[in-house]
């Protein structure tokens, strides 16, 4: 499965949006960058589906533009005007050439889900490899209204329990793509979150 970081060239604050090309060509998160449609068209003429990790603005603002351009199915936990398929914990979704389990992972956002296959993890903002706060094993912020560090810790624990041993590709909502021991990154993030390490100095 070929996975492309289609917001890598964005010069605004946005999430990482990933295009997985395969039997089910899929965009994971739509971003807030108005160049995302053109960047997708550099790679493919068709997008079969969009799967959303959560609906914060930096992940969802360009969703309607993507839908207008490619008419994909849209999978999301919470309702959205473009959603065609509701997903919940324990469901499965095809992304590229792999089948992914849906893991409900709130704390950073009430509607947050992650996607886990035998080889890959699309973690959204619940676990991040490096994001400026931590260089190896970070986690989503929980210092804003409606967010919860306790729920986030439970979510990372749930993700660790559901993570197969062979996962070696981590595609997170921010920071860099990671290839290697994904379980170790998740466990490092969990340890930091559990130890109440502040993600930001004023948290």
TrEMBL record:
Q: What keyword terms does UniProt attach to this protein?
A: Hydrolase, Metal-binding, Zinc
**The Metallo-beta-lactamase domain covers which part of the protein?**
14-174
What InterPro entries does this protein map onto? MBL_Glyoxalase_II, Metallo-B-lactamas, RibonucZ/Hydroxyglut_hydro
Cofactors demanded by this protein: Zn(2+)
Q: Which domain of life is it from?
A: Archaea
Q: Example GO molecular function term?
A: metal ion binding
Q: Which CDD domains match?
A: metallo-hydrolase-like_MBL-fold
Q: Which SMART domains match?
A: Lactamase_B (SM00849)
Name of this chain's protein: MBL fold metallo-hydrolase
